[in-house]
Amino acid sequence: MAVDFPLVLYDCHFEGLSWKQEAEEVNYVLSALQQHWTQSAVKSHVLHGMIKGLEASGGVSSNHCWLVEGSRQRNYRPLLERPCCESLESRIDHFVKRGRLEREEGENGGDAVHRGKRSKHSHNSSTGPVSSELPPAKQRGCRVFTKMFLVGLTGGISSGKSTVSSMLRELGCPIIDADVVARKVVEPNTPAYSRIVHHFGREILLENGEIDRQKLGELIFADGEKRKLLNSITHPEIHKAMLKEILFYFLRGYRYVVLDVPLLFETRRLTKFLNHTVVVYCDPATQLSRLMQRDGLTQEQAEQRVAAQMPLNEKRGLANHVIENSGSREDAHRQVLRLHTKLEDSMDFLLVRVIAIAATTGLSGILLYAAKILIS
């Protein structure tokens, strides 16, 4: 039987799906699964059957993983479904020994990357090799292209923005988290660190010399002028660091990059560069409840922190896309899958390609004209 590539299905591919749901819901998952894996189609009824099998065994657990393999005759069929105590690495070793996967060292000496090997009997052999990076699961989903566009993701405190960001990351989308970047640019011995200590004093420092984010947060949430001062120090450094990461993903050929920015609409410095903006919304009562529970705040403290940000209703009116996150995680997950599919099929990418082709054609014409002059 002609086999293309092994495929690993993790729990995140099944989250929020059930046997009774329509094939449309499953197809959103398939659009993410199919990007790098094979030239055979993954049929929705096959995935339905796998979901049914998972539910019959007691539902999806954090220890469950499926290995399946594809063929031109049967598309995908479950393979090597083994007890949870057997590690994923041992199952991958099985494929390596069979010559169906090649093991390579990951970037910077990191995790090993496993790439599928094409069977000599595989169909459509004229097409270039398709790579499948098995672990980690987060590196799947976004297709790889030579140009890309930017998507801004924002929300309010405790609206669930980080949850949505994690879901997109699990689909393989590159995420640039402004909060993570913000922590890096204020590390000791950086320009922003020195200016913050100069303006806010050494009492905001921990014993190890790092900035105590909780103390600094208490200062700026209580004083609007201090908040503006801090933003004027950190935002330029954050934007420079984010630009470096954007260029990194651009050179790697990703279709789109998600900029996870809490104050996206407050600062408005990045919005002019974005093709799409996404707001994670939840109703005010849910937002307060989550914040009080998460941070152990009183209602007054929580209301003060929410009031320090632009209201979610206002952000909702400024965004191109809204993820409604007042309900269950499963409902939010389905919305994220739909959003990912829309972005993957966006006309913005086609426009970028047309402009790039036109520019390349124009440059080629100029070079050809110059060459003719030199030759003559």
Automatic annotation (TrEMBL):
List the InterPro entries hit by this protein, alphabetically: Depp_CoAkinase, P-loop_NTPase
Membrane-spanning intervals of the chain: 350-371
Q: Pfam families in the record, alphabetically? A: CoaE
Keyword Repeat carried by entry: no
GO annotations of cellular component type = cytoplasm
Q: CDD domains attached here?
A: DPCK
Region of interest: Disordered? 100-137
The GO molecular function terms of this record are:
ATP binding; dephospho-CoA kinase activity
GO annotations under biological process? Answer: coenzyme A biosynthetic process
Gene3D superfamilies named among the record's database cross-references: P-loop containing nucleotide triphosphate hydrolases
Which UniProt keyword terms apply here? Answer: ATP-binding, Membrane, Nucleotide-binding, Transmembrane, Transmembrane helix
This protein's source sits in the domain of life called Eukaryota
Q: Which family does it belong to?
A: Belongs to the CoaE family.
Instruction: Report the NCBIfam families cross-referenced here.
Output: dephospho-CoA kinase
The protein's matches in HAMAP family, at most eight in alphabetical order, are given as: Dephospho_CoA_kinase
Q: What is this protein called?
A: Dephospho-CoA kinase domain-containing protein
Species: Pleuronectes platessa
Source species taxonomy:
Eukaryota, Metazoa, Chordata, Craniata, Vertebrata
